[in-house]
Amino acid sequence: MSNTTSSNPASLRIANLLDEGSFVEIGGQVTARATDFNMQEKKAPTDGVITGYGVIDGNLVYVYSQDASVLNGTIGEMHAKKIANIYDMAMKMGAPVIGLIDCAGLRLQEATDALNAFGSFYYKQAMASGVIPQITAVFGNCGGGLAAAAALSDFTFMAENGKLFVNSPNTIPGNTADKCDTASAKFQSEESGIVDGVGSEEEILDEIRSLVAILPANNEDNDAYDECTDDLNRVCADLENAAEDAALALSMISDNGVFIETKKAYAKDMVTGFIRLNGMTVGAVANRSKVYDEEGNTAEEFDGTLSAMGCKKAAAFVKFCDAFGIPVLTLTNVKGLKATACSEKNLAREMAALTYAFADATVPKVNVITGKAFGSAYVTMNSKAIGADMVYAWPEAEIGMMAADMAAKIMYTDADADTLKAKTEEYKALQSSPLSAAGRGYVDTIIEPADTRKYVIGAFEMLFTKREERPSKKHGTI
Predict the structure, then answer these.
(1) Rounded (5°) CA angle 360-347-273
(2) What pairs with residue 372 in β-bridges?
(3) CATH homologous superfamily for 9-212?
(4) pTM of the model
(5) 62 forms bridges with which residues in the sheet?
(6) pLDDT digit string (tens) for 91-140?
(7) 225-394+447-465 belongs to which homologous superfamily?
């Protein structure tokens, strides 16, 4: 039972997040110990942050919720120490930490004491990375150094009226909030890619509950399973028609349509998120060329290439999955690398990061080639060459250096139309068909689209006991 009797937003958020009556407060009597600038005359119950533990659908979690009614929720020495203490407990017990942010920044009256304690908060987050899931939700202000704390989390959500910023928009030279609100949920979800989801307070808390339910509690937890009530051999009759919108395709493959998408508004040409296959949590990464609306109409369209932002999004997701022992499924449909001046600034680096993430991951990795798989972009997308354990391809997939007609034009520049057509068909058969790739061992099995769910479930069941070593080293540098 909670020791907190207040009905302020900070405690209500905890109550709405956790199973009813499960919250136990820790450090409820802690208050600020600073006396400079007449601080002793200011009441600071809980020092502006409520900390404790509870359960979500029976799963243990640790929570801190900042109280903006106490010194505007500013972070003082004891405030930060309370959060650090929660991290210590969470790592000992192997349970996620959920932070509910509503803060006016560091407390000026405590200066170096606040800074030092806040630094310990950073340190605990760094130590917890890859050990326990860290989830942050921004309900008010999350500015300055606290923005880095949100970025250090594995998953971050924002209320529609929340503010997340390093520098407030009006302090950026040449910018104003009216011109470009860099602190808004829209900017931070679409442009920076820090935010996974935006919504009302109720929607965000529901998303966090769903995420906790599907994630392992820690990096040694092998119990991230749910009972499967779906048919393991279910035929996905319309999957081929949904392939261009990978978010839709993944939900069709998953048990009972479960799909929890991450970073929904960022780099929409790449889809990342969690599905369930025979009750097992699986991380999914997929290329997307279209977004369909609820009526099945095309709402957005992409050019089918691999972008720098898409690579960045996917690499971080694959690293998370590998850290927590979550198998990875990819749906590959990519015709090449994005060709823009903007992409050229970052694409090589981000492509390298994604290649490294897939190659370095030792979890079970399955790839399904649903459409085009051309050039280096294909190699990067969890190909057999960089470590995929099983690779499937649909019958109409195209695998190779480039489209067959382009290859024919390059090889036979002076040929007439009939010759080019014949050479195109010859190139398809010899070099870019899934049968050709399978003949060389680059594809394990050619499968019908409708049977995809059955095959990937079978693959992950077979790979369940996978063990794979890497060269001994402290860590990679990519």
Answers:
(1) 55
(2) 398
(3) 2-enoyl-CoA Hydratase; Chain A, domain 1 (3.90.226.10)
(4) 0.92
(5) 53, 97
(6) 999 999 999 999 877 776 677 888 888 899 999 999 999 999 999 999 99
(7) 2-enoyl-CoA Hydratase; Chain A, domain 1 (3.90.226.10)
